Amino acid sequence: RPQAVDILRSLPQNQASQALADLRAAVRQSIQGRTAEEQQWQLECGDLYLAIGRTEKAAELWNELAMAEKLDPEMAVRVTLRLCGWNLAQGQLLPLEIWTPATIAEDYPEEVRLMARFVTGSLAPQELDDALQRLPNPRILTEAEWDVARALRARAEGRDADSVQLLWSAADRAAADRAWPHFLLDLLRTRTQ
Question: Which of 164, 158, 156 is nearest to 184 (CA)?
């Protein structure tokens, strides 16, 4: 993926968009009928569209994915993070109620429920830290994803400077193949200049 991002970003935006649309169609055809793989690919395509500056297309793909009938909890939290992060970078905050189902779903992994409870404000930062230390390894969510969640919480509490700092942290921690927090930060910087 990092090479794909580099190649796409080196092209003029219209050519990059067409190349990504062609790639998306080819891959979708090859994985058709395998729901989990199709959903992962749609999530990643959103990330790629974000990387080339097609932010509306990224949000469109993530919204479609969020509305999928069968969405596993890990995918649900990842797409919700991206949508909330995208809105945060736009200077908006999605209603925290979108996290409510994950706070009460007993079939969701504990880590996913913790994130939802934290973002909605029903779990204090110290309680979160204690709970995260008790979780078994490997954990489901990355440190970068947790930093985005912390940025969302800070923004909801009116701590805008902390929110931006946490997005910086998320971008720094994001693995090269999961660089979407970096592109959210680019979007935020573009909006505030």
Answer: 164
Alpha helices (runs of H) in 11-120, residue ranges in sequence order: 13-30, 35-51, 55-66, 73-89, 100-104, 110-119
Query: How many CB atoms are closer than 10 A to CB 76?
Result: 21
**Strand, coil or helix: what is 146?**
helix
Which pLDDT score, from 0 to 100, does residue 135 have?
Answer: 94
Per-residue DSSP letter, 136: P
Residue pointed to by tokens 């500056």: 53
In total, the chain counts a number of residues equal to 193
How far apart CA 9 and CA 3 sit, in angstroms, is 10
Q: In angstroms, rounded to a whole number, what is the distance separating the alpha carbons of residues 157 and 96? A: 12
Between CA 116 and CA 103 the distance in angstroms is 5
Nearest to 181 by CA among 75, 51, 58, 64: 51
- From CA 193, how far away is CA 67, in angstroms rounded? 33
* Per-run averaged pLDDT (10 residues), the chain, 193 residues: 76 85 80 83 90 89 88 90 89 80 83 93 93 92 93 92 91 77 81 69
